[in-house]
Amino acid sequence: MITKIDNQIALFRDEFDKVRTEIGKVIVGNEEVIDGTLVSLLSKGHVLLEGIPGVGKTKIVSTVADVLQLKFSRIQFTPDLMPGDVVGSDIMHETDTGEKHLAFQKGPIFTNILLADEINRATPKTQSALLEAMQERSVTVGVTTHQLKPPFFVLATQNPVEMEGTYPLPEAQLDRFFYKLRIKYPESEHMHEIMNRTTTSTEPIARTVLDRDQIVEMRETARNVPIAPSIQDYAIRLTLATNPGNAHTHPLTEKYVRFGASPRGTQALVVGSKVNALVNGRVHVACKDIRSYFLPAFRHRILLNFEGEADRVDPDDILETIMNDILEPQK
Amino acid sequence: MGWLQTLSDYASWQEECRVYISREEESTTNEISVVKSADGRSRESSRVRSILKKIDRRVHLIYCSDLLAKVACTTLGISLFFQVNGMLFPVESPPLRVLIVGSMLFYICFAIKPIFEKNRLNRTAGLTDELADLSDEIKTAYWFVRNPMESAWIDLQLRRAAKSLDKLKLEELFPFKISRWFGGVFILGGLGTGLSLIPNETPLFIREMDPEMSFSEIENQIGDLQSNLEGDVGTFLDESDFESLERVLEDLKGDEILNEELLMELQQAEEILNEEIFGMDALTQELVQLSQEFSESQKLSDFANSLGEMDLTSAAQKLRELSENLANMDTSVLNELEQELQSQEFSESFSAEELLDALDEAGTALAQDQISKAEGSLTEAAEALDAMAQNQSLDEALNEASMSMQALSQEISQRANNSSMTPDGQMEGGAAGSASDEVTKSSGGDPGDGSGPAGNSTGTPSEVAELELGEATTLEVQLSLEIIDEQFMEEYPDPQNLFQGASQKQLSDLQFHEIGGLTEYSNASALDVETVFWQYSDLVKNYFLGIRPLRKNDNKN
Q1: What is the tally of structural domains in chain A?
Q2: Contact state of A226 with B144 under an 8 Å Cβ cutoff
Q3: pTM higher than 0.80, yes or no?
Q4: ipTM of the assembly?
Q5: Are A219 and A279 members of one domain?
Q6: Which of A13, B74, B116, B525 gives 20 to 30 Å between its CA and that of A187?
Q7: For residues B196 and B317, what is the distance between their CA atoms, to the nearest angstrom?
């Protein structure tokens, strides 16, 4: 049995490395974003990518879709996009015999990987069409609920600069995202490499290395990783520190935060840590796994109060301070 | 068809049998694997626990060694401090054995303390993780050792942790190093030994302050005082005073009392001596008065002179001579002498009673022409003077004793002050200081030396002070109203027309920023935070913070 688990772990690492290598052929730098996306995929979570235009948000998503042998759909969110355009709708269908009946026409959401490009450009009504799909993995149209085939993975992008004509995602929608990953502006070395790869006649192409079954198996493997209660307690203390009005609240939270991370955030923290532990060849979760994805898991779950907004406080600064101040167990 | 049916039944039966056997085999395999797994888990758990205990013992030994070095270093440091302090200041240091026993107790307490702590192995596991960079592997494994759970993943985790612990080189990870504090121990030990070789009979700081006074000299003074007490001074004092002084001197010699107590005792002794000296002083004054009264007498002038010079032996001699010559004197001379002796009115408070009575009796006897009785009375007066002469020498001895005691008390007070002074020169406690003050008072300081606090305004002010104050205030106020500066005169040459002239108009420039209205819909959006100019952000923030509803925390603050 132990040998079997050892093999599973080895296979998990091997497959993860393969995917990472393939994506690395196309995407330059941004290792943290790529790892975060894959960890989120293997944790049954969705990712919100944030970055200024032109840094490769859509490219990362399309490359991830390329290396995974999964069904891929892309929706370009615009203000006039309707919920029916996302989930699908009942349309009149005429049979060969001339009978007419309503048939459900599936929308682009019925896929494995969904790229919701510039998600904050759509109206809240359309954005909320994703809510059920993201959490329940099902879509209800009229009285009929349609199950989505696993794995269902939403990769949404948004631009933090242009706020004009946008609809910021509501808290409930944001909480559905497992991680919010920020794509940094590439450094000069990476810029050279990007130019070399993309300004010639041949552009690198990523091979497909992982199929649906492998992903499902990897997801199950990751969930089995044990976590010691002391480490879990560390994750919980970090979560409570982001919430005002309790014994563990951090002073900075008390000052600037209106609502902190939800238990769903802690789930994301722990499950992501388990995947990260396996990626690093461990069969237990360590405190450094918790810390690795603390910011991506919590940054979009922190709702600043007026004072925080007025002082232009970045949630990342609050979270970093909390992470530095909350001591690890037995330290 | 029947046999086909039979064949089909047989095939299905065979299949069922195969399934049954495979299930049985699987369950047997599972049972075996569970037993194996349980065995393996307990084995790995005990391995993890035993290695952790081994590490814990090693860590504790290192801790004890380091603690020993630190305690030894601190003890030596304190001992050295007292040694140096004793060389500089006359401070009594605690015995070395107290210091050593205290340090040993401290060491034992802190060395034993970790043994009784809870979760020692958990802490050791955390330490091992940190030092060996094992990413909480041992900590997690130890938790599963304490809380066993049936999971192949946990078994694997335990096995991996045990392997990691086996691979650890404890000598490298937890090396037995000689603590750097031991270096300090050697240095301080060497310093202590070196200092003990330096002769330090006298504190350095005291020598610098008063080179004339040393411990041996103080001891000599005490010896002198004791010999005085055993001699004339002792016979002169009351029994209780004598005992009190003797006790003080014994204490001084035995050095059994603290400086503060010593000063109090010395003060008391000084007061006793001062009382006696005061009595002697009063007697001396009375004798001087007597000499002045007899100074105009012809027959008693020699006696008066001797008395005035406080040569009491000579005065007694003169009285004896007078007594011897009394019988040979004429009646007129005797009458004159009788008048002189009887004309004196001695005050009732006169303390030289014997002398005065004798002189009075001599006068009365002469008046009654009882020459022999007068002779006897004069001889008695002479004897009284002799006794006084003897007391005069005692007075000198008392004075000397009092001076010595005063000097001694000052010296001790100074030592007490020095010992309680911080390096900044500040007094640490009030006891020594107040005692010193009392000593100064008892020694008779100048009461009108002008060092007292200045009088406040409640007293009657002197004329000069009143005059200066009044003049300055009035003059300044008056002049300030009258002064017209030169620049003003230049601008307005005729001050008389100043108030009648037309009022001057002054133009001012108003500085303002033009703030445009929000013309576009998107700019007016509350979401666009940039609509608030950065220079007004604080103002806007404070405004909204001011009008917001109170929160729970606000009430607390």
Answers
A1: 2
A2: yes
A3: no
A4: 0.81
A5: no
A6: A13
A7: 65
